[in-house]
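Appendix C reproduces, verbatim, an entry submitted by the partner laboratory led by Prof. M.T., so that reviewers can inspect both the input and the predicted structure.
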Amino acid sequence: MFYLCVTYMNLSIRFLLRKDKPGKDNLYSVHLRVTQSRKHQYLSTKHRVSIANWD
C-alpha cells in the first residue's frame, strides 16, 4: 500500500492505495485510514486510480 499521511494532535488520516485488489480495468481503489487513540477505521472514497497517477 502507498499512503499520504496528515496528522493533527492524536488524529491521523492516511489516504491509501489498495494495491492488493486491482479492478478489471487495472485501477486501484483509494481508501482512508483514520486513526485516533490507536484505533483504526478504514473508509472507502469510491475513487479508483492507476498506479502511474497516484504520486
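Residues 2-53 form one domain. Additional entries are available on request from the coordinating office.
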